[in-house]
Structures are given as C-alpha cells and as structure tokens.
Amino acid sequence: xxxxxxxxxxxxxxxxxxxxxxxxxxARRGDDPEVSVVVADSDGAAIDRTxxxxxxxxxxxxxxxxxxxNRHDHPRVRRIAPPIGAVSTGDxxxxxxxxxxxxxILFVDAGDELHRHACRNLVVAAEDAGAxxxxxxxVRLSTAGRPVDPPVAExxxxxxxxxxxxxxPALLRDAALCNKMFDLQMLRRHGVRFDxxxxxxxxxxxxxxxALAGGIAVxxxxxxxxxxxxxxxxSDLVMEHRALDEFLAxxxxxxxQLAKQVSFLTEELPLALAIVAAGSDADTPAALASLGSYxxxxxxxxxxxxxPLLNLGVFLVRQGDVDGVRSVVDYLAHDRKITTRLxxxxxxxxxxDRHLDTAEGRRMLDVTTVGFQELRLSQLHxxxxxxxxxxxxxxxxxxxxxxxxxxxxxxDSSVEIALVVAPGRSSRREVAPLTLxxxxxxxxxxxxxxxxxxxxxxxxxxxxxxxxxxxxxxAGESSLVPISAYDDPRIADVRLYSRLRWYPxxxxxxxxxxxxxxxxxxxxPEGALxxxxxxxxxxxxxxxxxRRMLETLGVLVRGLRRxxxxxxxxxxxxxDLLVRLPQDKKSVVFENHMGQSYSDxxxxxxxxxxxxxxxxxxxxxxxxxxxxxxEGVRTVPRNSWRYFLALARAGYxxxxxxxxxxxxxxxxxxYLQTWHGSALKRMGEDTPAFRSMPEDRQERHREMVARWDxxxxxxxxxxxxxxxxxxxxxxxxRSGYPRNDPLVQLRSNEQRAAVRDELGLPRDAVLVLYAxxxxxxxxxxxxxxxxxxxxxxxxxxxxxxxLLVRTHYLQRLRLPAAAHAVARDVSHFPDITPLMVAADIxxxxxxxxxxxxxxxxxxxVFFAYxxxxxxxxxxxxxxxxxxxxxxxxxxxGEELLQALSTVDAWRPDYEERYQKFVAxxxxxxxxxxxxxxxxxxxxxxxxx
Length: 944
Known about the structure:
alpha/beta; Immunoglobulin-like; Spore Coat Polysaccharide Biosynthesis Protein SpsA, Chain A; 7-stranded antiparallel beta sheet; disordered N terminus; 38 strands
C-alpha cells in the first residue's frame, strides 16, 4: 500500500484543523474596528436593504463604509465620495479598500444582504483557524422568497480550515465576494486591488486572495443573500480570467492552476454562454472570438469531465455559431428544452445539421448516447414557436411552427393539434383547436384563433398568469410542449387585450417570458385606478389566505420536486432508456457505504485494479462532497442523473452495502458485493425484524441481494452466517477482505511509524484506537455518541497514551475529544484501516472491527458498558462475545483505564483464545485478498 500517496490533510485529517487556536474574538484595539464593511453603490439600486443588513450586525466592532454619490445620512455609516472619474464598481471598491481601518474587510454590493451574524461568524471562523480569509455559505431568494443554495454550497457543508488554497483548490469555484472576509493587511501587503477596467473585478480579487492567504477558514453558517451576479460583456469576463491565470502561474501550484481552469468551465462557462446568447447581434462576433480564444488556450484535459452539452457549447463557440450556442444555453438553462432540430444520419443522432462536414464536427455534435431517439413522444421536446400574431378585439390570431424532431410525427399520420391555456398552479385547462397548415419531415406549421375572453378567466381563485402549451396527438399518443419565447423580443411583454371585468386583479393581458424561456400570459393593472384596486385586493388576500396559500404552494412544490428528481422517476427512466445505451465494458462504478467515503473494501479493490493498469475506467459515487481522488477517477453524486447513467453503462459494480433497490442490474453487468464486516449480531433473515416484515418487503430485499454476482467472505463463519442470512445466490469468494491486506502486510516498526507520520500522529505515544459501533436506537440521521471515559482521569493515569476516538459513520461524537490533551477525534478519517495499522491497542464493543484488528496480533479490550442490553436484545447474536473475546470485557470507564494500564499482565492469559479467534473469524485474511478478488472478478482466473 502506497500510504505516502494519500493526502490525509486534504481528506480532513491531521493538520487540517487548528483545535488549539480556539479563543475569544479579538477585542477592539483603540479606535480601530475589527471589521470594515465596504458597500459599493454604482447605481443606487437596492442600497437601503444592504445598509440595513450591515447596520443590524450582531458584531459591533465594525465600521460601515458607503462608497457612493447617493446621500445616506446615518451616524454609523461613513460615506466616501467616489474617486473623480470613477466609472466602475472596481473603482468604488478600491476607494473603500484604501479608506478601511479594520483588521478585516468585507465587500458587499448594493442589493446583497448580510445575515445578522455574518461578521461574527466569519471573524470567529478566521480567529479559530488563524486564517487570513474566512468564507461562508450564501444563498439566493427564489421567486417565492425562499432561500436557494447555489451549486457551490457543497463547499460549505462543514466547519473546515485549510493551511493554503493548495489543500482545497475547489474553493476557486465560488467567485462570490459578499461571503468572504479578508485580512486587510494581507491585501495591502500583496497589493491586491480591484481592476477598474473590467466588470468582473471581484473574481480577480477572490482568486488572488485565496492563493495568497495564510490559512482559509470555512464556516457552514449563512453569511449573505446574494442579489445578482456581476454583469458585463464576455470580453471583460475573459480578460479577468486571463489576468488571474497569469497571476496563479507565478503564485500557485499546478494543482491549483488546473482547478481554476476547471472551475471556469464548470461554473463560468454557462454564464459566458448565456451572455453570448443574450447579446445583440452586433456584439456577438467579438464576444465569440474573445471566449473562443480563451477556450483554445485551456489544456485539453480540463474538458474531460464536462457534460456533453457543455463541450458541445465550447465547440459551437469556436465555430462562431451563435444560433447553436443559443440552442445549447436554452437546453442547459431551461429544463433541457431542445430548441435545435436534431438530425439522424447513419444510425447516429446529431445536435444539428451544421458542421457535419468534418470528423471533429460529427464527433462533437453526436448526441446519440444522450438517448433522444429512445424517448417516447410525450418525453421528447418538440420545439414550438410563434411566427406571427395579431389581435382583433378579444380574438388572438396566431401562426407558428413545431420542429418534427427525428421525424417522430410521420407525414402520413393524422396529427391533432391544439393550444392549451392553463392558469398557474391549477389543474384547469382551456383548449383551443388549431389547424395544421403544413406537415413535412422537418416541421409542422399551424394556425388558429383563440378567444381571449373565454380562456382567460381569473375566477374566484384570483388567477393572474396562464401557461400556453401545444398538445399534439398522433396514434393515440400525446405530447404537451411549451411555446418557446427565449431570445424572441417580438412577443415578450406585449399588450394583447384589456377588459374591465377582470378587476380587481388587473385589467390588461400581456405576454411574458417565463424563467424557463416559455411564452405565458399575465394579468396586470394599467392606470391609477386599476393599480389602486389591485393593491387593496392584494392586502385583503394576503391577510385572509396567505398562510393557507403558502402551505398549499409548499406541498405542491415539494410534490413536483419529488416527481421530477425522485429516485423512482430516475429509476424508471433508467430501466426504460438508460440501460439500452451502449455498454462501456471496462467502466467500473465503485461505492462505499451508500456513498459515504472513499474507503473500506471497494477502495482496496480499486487500488489493486488501478495498479494493474489494464484500461479500466473508475467511477466513484458520493452522497456528499467527494474527497480528493487519484488522477483519472471520475466522481458522480449518488442518486444523480449521472449516477444512474454510469450504472446503466458500466461493465462492473463494486459496492460494500447495497446500491439503491430501485436499480435493476442488467444481465451484462457484473456486481461484486464486498460486504463490510463479519457478524456478531444476527443479520437479514435471521432477525425477528425481517421475519415480521410484510412479504412484499421481504421479497424486495431478496431481489436486491439477487443482483450480486460475487460475495466476499473472510471466514467460514461468514459462509455459515451471512450467506444464508442474506440469502446470497452469487459466487462466494473465500479470499478475505481487501481492506485487511495492509493489516497483514504492514507490521514492522518502520512501516507503522511511516503511517503515523502520514496521519500526523505522535510516533512515541501509545495509541489506543476506540472504535464503537452504533446502537439499535438508530433510526434516521446521525446517532449522538457520548464518550463514557473520564479523560482527565485517563490523562492522570496514562499520560503516555493517546485515545483516538473513531465513531461509526452513523454516529456523531458529542464530547469534544479533540480538545483534550489525551484524546483526538479521528472520526473524520474516511478509512479506518491506516488507523488500525498505527494503533497499539484496540478498544471496541461489538463492532466487526474486532475481526479486522485481530490480523495485527495486537491487544484488544472490549468496552461493553451496555453488554446485556445489546447482546441479549430481540435481534440476538451468533455467538457469545464473553466466551470468545480475545481480550478482557470491561463495563465501566474505570475498568477500561485499569485494563489499558495492565496490558502486559493480562495479555498472556488471552494468547490461546486470540489464536482461535483469528483462525475462526479471519482464516482467509492472508494479505492477498485484493489480488485474488481482482483476478477472479475482472480477469476470470481462479484465486490461489
């Protein structure tokens, strides 16, 4: 095992935190404040709520600097006149930077709002970690006024500290400024300033400050509500990123530089494409040229993990194809709408018919694997647009067309077409038949007349908006598609019709473009009287029905989200479509404990397979943020669309607990179930809980197990207990556990000392690894675990010992063990194997870690303070631990300390029992398990 190659600090290990730096927030030093909050106001918009949030801070040692021409008189706000000739936000921020007197500085734009404890949380985070930059979580407000996390929120899941950006380059993904507090002297010492020549100068300051910072603290606390992204031309965005690239080339490692380039593609490229798509035709060529030249300069390896459509967008930018870029933006930003005309040639599906004259064009435009051709008509978006319209009184005369994607509406078929008008958040429908004017292999042209007075009826429910969709029916199958209005100013915000009887909600009907780029109708008040009546009605409606309406809306939104993003929906599409995609026979999906970490048996199988360098492609799934992974490994979020696609196409699945039950295994896929431990407590069908389940639930469990082609065992005890209890039908591999290979191989003092160094553990201390299991009271979430040991007493009695507390992944340690001189909380280490290599003694209770640690031959103590409750519970055990434990059972903290202090005295008494324990529960753990498993599963040879 190449332990030296593992970056333990980056994975949350020793050195990643400053537990010794906890202390009070710095007090004021003379008249200087602790924090300077700079509010840059370039246009005066929304400044009031920004200043109000700054004035409401619970942290009082701060000054508020408003750099603005606008007068805002408040005794706690120091207004700074903008520099002469200032034309950009960068100028205003630099003026605030120059005038600030605080130790730390925070920049906020007009419209942003600070959380009440924002400054306090950031200062505490910075001081606890001794960091020069502190960053926290930010959100946006949805149209319903609810906070919505951005994609980068995953960076701020937990309190963390990093010595430098190189420890967590992914922080470059978040270019926001309002959630970051900087050490002011650090900025001035390095000359970090805002560029006054670009509209995106905040990105440069964020990137430079993170790269230069002596320590970065991360807090999961919400810091700000962000109003809007910085806006400007693509050329400015590219200019800022070029300058940041040049800076990082001289101040950061290649790892950080690569992470920054990848962050541009994943976070900034969609924004750049959207700016290009929304720009005027006069600006577009220059914007495409600027963006294209920057993309050309990026290493080819940075594009490898982009989703296919983003890579397609890159190609279209390089081709100068504005319409193509707009179609990609519409697809990515507007719920996967296909506004281009798909083309099918020689059995392949292409995004459009342009650029197919070159091999590169055909390769980049090939979207066959996305599976559009496999979708049912009701699932395939048939792009529809309005070509012409006019209003005669209350009658709307409209003409438009629909793209006949992939010829799914045959010309010789009878197609019925209608316009469906539906009030928002309602099941009501008004249907207006349309006439099919022309029908070809490429498109359908249609026209019709709609009586607005009959389809737009506010009613007693107070409807104010209506969606417009086309319903196309052929051979009994229907497709309901929206009418696109994205990038079409002719039909956006157009007044159609006015009617007095629509009071009190409004009197005029106008078109609008929804956030998804579709055409809709909205009722609005026009004129003083209509506006006054609408305001009164809104107040009355709010006063009487607000709570009921919000509750109903919440139920609806949650239901829709479950429908569109739920596992069952994805599993259905997985079964109906994804498994029909071509298989990648050398693709291997790895998962550990339902995506909890990179560890256990799957990790060691992966490392052995990677060592062979036989061309296998590894994909790891993670339920949360993925840890740093070896080069060439792709990661996918568990239960995401990418996860289901990876499973559908993979040649192999490797898992140690259980993939989602809704996923059926294709016959072409091989499933290696490594499992995660021998059993003391009864499992599966041996438990009363299983036998009391309804028959359908029992059958679902059996179907899950039936997917396994291979099951790893490390002893005949496993074969006698786990195999029948789980009803394993696959081939049993009597190889031992791959995760235990290091425990057999790394036994010398030199090897163990090297592992301790890697983990940041003291070489000379007696390391006691305490690894309890979770209790049966676990139901949902993480179980609280309280340490049953008096640490002060341990320190007094065993000063040379260090207690390493490593809780089960379903537990959360409540006592701050890491804050005590004699104890450390090592639960954040994802892999317990190196901790067992390093440990001198194991303390556990009923955890299967006892069977693993027995391979080391080192002493074990069983801290079974709730033995009777656990062992004699309804679930039952396969054997009495008290009869076979290869070490003393203790029931109190005092007894544990006594056992630890007298190891040499009692160890000989357990020598014979220890040998029997190893022979019975670890007979196949010979240190060659990973090799044997890989030989059998991936290369088909029998293990020796």
